[in-house]
């Protein structure tokens, strides 16, 4: 694999850390600012919405800039946002910092996916995308647990200061290792926008929203769920996040490998199994060992969908994939925002901390139905038209063969 993929993975590591570390620190942040846990959940929702809107906006603004330079600018924005979060004197200011950092997220992964795919042979594109996303998944094994531990021991502000430093490392990595790749001639913003006329692109994005939203419905409130329902100690949440991260790493690599061979079957299996596991989490969350195993499976099945969904968007975008790729990253985070909001609603309504798991199961099942619909439409589109030879006179058919 090219060294440029390592640079992209480094940037992804920093972004993944800041995205997911807030899950384990919600109680600390809520207590510090004097807000409820569902209110603190807006730090997840706000970040996700920032990614959703920032992905197309930042990608569009970067259409006149080389992809390498745009990746560097995005890492700079990420650094600023995390410093603002670390120094925030009030909850509203921290929310603003989260949104500022999130504006870099979607465009970085969107542009990075295109760069990663361009660096390898056509039959290895999903694997290259998965390699970049490995930085995101490894963040959940190393960055997020350590960030959670630091936040619980020293203070969550220190955690976000360290995340800003990770952004500096990512910026230097991109500057040093990512090559200057010329933009395709004749591809402009109008050309990029044309990809959204493709029903398959839109269906893939809808699958992204619903499928990955199912994961976040459970994981957003993992800290209170595990401490109040499974009766884990607060410090154990760190290790549960490690398990989630290990599942993500494995699922991402498996998804990337098999997406290059059988993309749609990979989606059927991962989305179907994810819906079942999330539904079962409502029961397994009451028993420590079963809860831990379920958390690993949610991470693995959720991230097994990432490379195939991202590759499907790139394949269907027909030569102008940058904006579509970035918007699909926004779609992942729209799913995060939707599920975090729905999860907060069911908790606030008094259904308990396990109720978001059923919300997630429903979202994943809906994504599976869209996958079947997408495949059916594709088969119909690819079916050759039937030629009625009987309508052609015999002598004319003979002439054709002469």
UniProtKB/TrEMBL annotation:
<feature type="transmembrane region" description="Helical">
    <location>
        <begin position="42"/>
        <end position="61"/>
    </location>
</feature>
<dbReference type="InterPro" id="IPR020846">
    <property type="entry name" value="MFS_dom"/>
</dbReference>
<keyword id="KW-0472">Membrane</keyword>
<feature type="transmembrane region" description="Helical">
    <location>
        <begin position="236"/>
        <end position="254"/>
    </location>
</feature>
<feature type="transmembrane region" description="Helical">
    <location>
        <begin position="128"/>
        <end position="150"/>
    </location>
</feature>
<dbReference type="InterPro" id="IPR050189">
    <property type="entry name" value="MFS_Efflux_Transporters"/>
</dbReference>
<feature type="transmembrane region" description="Helical">
    <location>
        <begin position="330"/>
        <end position="352"/>
    </location>
</feature>
<feature type="transmembrane region" description="Helical">
    <location>
        <begin position="156"/>
        <end position="178"/>
    </location>
</feature>
<feature type="transmembrane region" description="Helical">
    <location>
        <begin position="73"/>
        <end position="96"/>
    </location>
</feature>
<feature type="transmembrane region" description="Helical">
    <location>
        <begin position="102"/>
        <end position="121"/>
    </location>
</feature>
<feature type="transmembrane region" description="Helical">
    <location>
        <begin position="289"/>
        <end position="309"/>
    </location>
</feature>
<feature type="domain" description="Major facilitator superfamily (MFS) profile">
    <location>
        <begin position="4"/>
        <end position="379"/>
    </location>
</feature>
<keyword id="KW-1133">Transmembrane helix</keyword>
<feature type="transmembrane region" description="Helical">
    <location>
        <begin position="266"/>
        <end position="283"/>
    </location>
</feature>
<dbReference type="InterPro" id="IPR011701">
    <property type="entry name" value="MFS"/>
</dbReference>
<dbReference type="InterPro" id="IPR036259">
    <property type="entry name" value="MFS_trans_sf"/>
</dbReference>
<keyword id="KW-1003">Cell membrane</keyword>
<feature type="transmembrane region" description="Helical">
    <location>
        <begin position="199"/>
        <end position="224"/>
    </location>
</feature>
<keyword id="KW-0812">Transmembrane</keyword>
<protein>
    <submittedName>
        <fullName>MFS transporter</fullName>
    </submittedName>
</protein>
<dbReference type="Pfam" id="PF07690">
    <property type="entry name" value="MFS_1"/>
</dbReference>
<feature type="transmembrane region" description="Helical">
    <location>
        <begin position="358"/>
        <end position="377"/>
    </location>
</feature>
